[in-house]
């Protein structure tokens, strides 16, 4: 149902380096970009994508309280790989990869370089 998610950034180059590597783990690369906006997705599949932007109103980007972006992995190994990659790239740990709830949900949580909460999960 979702088409894409856009996150605000105050340092588009730093954020782009982070998401280039995270999105590459899902087999997608940049599909659109200009000096203020970059989007990653696979236009062939029409799947949900992620974008970064400098806020249009010119004000500093801030983190939305209660907002989280979730990347769906194919299996637990990919969850571990992406979570560990995010931490290596400077993300802040918000909950290490592992089972949650009854164990059918496996996820790792982190904050990207701009402080946006993210998770990578499989079910």
| Tally of individual domains | 1
Reported by name, the CATH topology is: 2,3-Dihydroxybiphenyl 1,2-Dioxygenase, domain 1
**Portion in helices:** 10-25%
Which structural class matches the secondary elements? alpha/beta
Tally of DSSP helical segments:
2
Report the average pLDDT across residues.
Answer: 93
Total strands: 8
Task: Please state roughly what percent of the residues sit in beta strands, choosing from under 5%, 5-15%, 15-25%, 25-35%, 35-45% or over 45%.
Answer: 35-45%
Can you list the strand order of the major beta sheet?
A: 1-4-3-2
- The CATH class designation is Alpha Beta
Distance between the termini: 18 Å
Radius of gyration: 14 Å
Question: What are the low-pLDDT stretches, counting only 5+ consecutive residues below 50?
Answer: none
What's the short version?
This protein has helices at 12-24, 76-88, and strands spanning 4-8, 29-34, 37-41, 49-53, 68-72, 92-100, 105-111, 117-122.
How would you describe this structure to a colleague?
The chain is α/β, with parallel strands linked by helices. The protein is built from two helices and eight strands; from the N terminus they run βαββββαβββ. It has one domain: Roll (2,3-Dihydroxybiphenyl 1,2-Dioxygenase, domain 1). β6 and β7 form a beta hairpin. It is globular and about 45 Å long.
């Amino acid at each position: 149902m979702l088409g894409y998610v856009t996150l605000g950034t105050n340092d588009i180059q730093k954020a782009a380096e982070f998401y280039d590597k995270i999105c590459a783990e899902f087999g997608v690369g940049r599909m659109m970009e200009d000096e203020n906006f970059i989007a990653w997705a696979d236009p062939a599949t029409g799947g949900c994508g992620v974008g970064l932007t400098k806020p249009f109103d010119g004000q500093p980007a801030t983190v939305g309280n209660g907002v989280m972006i979730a990347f769906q992995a194919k299996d637990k190994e990919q969850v571990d790989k992406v979570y560990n990659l995010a931490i290596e790239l400077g993300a802040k740990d918000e909950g290490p990869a592992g089972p949650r709830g009854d164990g059918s949900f496996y996820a790792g949580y982190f904050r990207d370089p701009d402080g946006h909460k993210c998770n990578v999960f499989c079910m």
